[in-house]
Amino acid sequence: MHQALVGRVVDNPRMWPPRGQWRPVARVGALTLPLLTCAVLSTVRDRVPAAPAVLVLVLWVVAAAATGDRLAGLLAAASGGLWFDFFLTAPFRQLAIKGSDDVETTVLLVLIGLAVTEIALWGHRQQARAAGRSGYLDGVLGAARLVSEGDTPAATLVEMVARQISEVLGVDDCRYEPGPVSDARVAVLRHDGTVTRGDHVVDVDRLGLPSNDFVAIPVGRGARVVGHFLVIAVSHVTYPTPEQRRVAVLLADQVAAAVETV
Question: How many domains is the chain partitioned into structurally?
Answer without folding.
Answer: 2
